[in-house]
Amino acid sequence: PAAPALLNVKADFPIFDHHPELVFLDSAASTQKPRAVIQAISDFYSRDYANIHRGAYRLSAHATDRFESVRADAARFFRAPSPDGVIFTRNATEAVNLVAHSWGQAHLNAGDVVLVSEMEHHANLVPWHLVTGLRGARVEYVRATPDGRLDLDDYAAKLRNPAVKFVALQHVSNVLGTVHPAAELVRLAHDRGLPILLDGAQAAPHLPLDLSALNADYYVLSSHKMLGPSGVGALIARPDTLNALPPYMGGGDMIREVYPDRSTYAPAPNRFEAGTPAIAEVVGFGAAMAYLTDLGMDRVEAHEQTLLHAALDRLNQIEGLDLYGPPTARGGVISFNVRGAHAHDVAGFLDEANICVRAGHHCAQPLIRALGCASTARASFYIYNTLDDVDALAGAMAETAEFFR
Ligand code: PMP
Fold it and tell me: Are 233 and 94 in contact, with CB atoms under 8 Å apart?
């Protein structure tokens, strides 16, 4: 067999200098940061910092250039239709709220339906509860299959309901790693003339993306899940789509003109970036995308697939362990339960072995209910994980399952 396609980048991540024993398997919650990102933020504050878009002096103009160049970098990295269609938000959650409130307040009426799925993270669910509640509309759910995929027949059937006005679905599941057929999800919505938002929080870190080709109306993601700092995320859309929406938040930087009784608004991106943004964090996000570009997203994906399949092979042999998720089309996430044990106790056992996994409902309560369990433990892989980490997980899981048998 061909040598496994593995990256060798652990040394780029200072957290492992401070915690050499750490087996970090919680990257789906948030990733560790490479030195290049930490350094970029520190350098920006040390050498270049000033507020942006207030270019009366050169230091501010330069900071503005640094910030705006990340917008161009993001457009290239994600193959967005245009840099003007890249809106920096606080995170994926804020990006969904922006669309839910701007689009929903303008377009939803009593009796209308927003179609989501049972697999959504609460970030792509609760904003729709809020806005449908305000507008007398409601949320309906595309069913999940027992092995954790979207039921595409159910999706097609629910799209035929004329009350459906908007579709909001995830690209990749944070609980099961399922990679949904995003192009097909978009095509089916567009065939019905419906706008669609894709939650790419778990896709952007792991897959090469071509958002122009994918053609979702709205795509959202978070920097902190892809090596960048927390406090910055993005909404990516076509500028004309964004300019047709009312602003979400009002304030400085997003206006054209302000009169005593009314304001007019700037076009995207400024239209949706009220107030001073997370300037240094955006610069750090730029460094994260540069780092991933150097590695190559195809190699990132291959590395995770190698670890995923090595881990599945090992975990599948352990008696008393229930693994969730589809057999194919999945990323580097494994949800599991030890029969007879609570997921939090399993995570506690693993923590004793310095293995970090998450336990609970993973902000996806409807999915956890659909799977028929109360919670799961979740191991998730990223570029700094190694086959030694897989060994550590499999060894500790064998002991944990043995303990509870
Ligand atoms: N969607 C999915 C699928 C996620 O996994 C997450 C983060 N767990 C989010 C949305 C929300 O991301 P954030 O907390 O960065 O806004």
Answer: yes
Residue 107 binned pLDDT confidence (cut-offs 50, 70, 90): very high
For the question of residue 356 being annotated catalytic, the response is no
Compute, in angstroms, the gap from residue 123 CA to the centroid of ligand 1. 6
Label residue 2 by pLDDT band (50, 70, 90).
low
Ligand 1 centroid to Cα of residue 59, in Å, is 35
| pLDDT grade for 4, boundaries at 50, 70 and 90 | low
User: Ligand 1 test: best mutation among 30, 173, 202, most atoms within 8 Å of CB?
Assistant: 202
Across 277-303, average pLDDT: 98
Q: Which two tokens stand for residue 284?
A: 């750090």
Q: Which of 121, 232, 285, 335 to mutate to test the pocket of ligand 1 (most atoms within 8 A of CB)?
A: 121
Residue whose C-alpha is closest to residue 95's, from 245, 206, 307? 245
Ligand 1 atom at minimum distance from 120 CA: 3
Model pTM above 0.95: yes
Cα-based distances in Å from 353 to 21, 24, 155, 397: 9, 11, 42, 10
Contacting residues for 88 by C-beta, under 8 A, at least 6 apart: 71, 232, 233, 234, 269, 273, 277, 278, 282
How many angstroms separate the alpha carbon of residue 126 from the centre of ligand 1?
Answer: 12
CA distance 34 to 14: 7
* Pair type for strands 233-236 and 218-222: antiparallel
**Which position has the higher pLDDT, 202 or 55?**
202
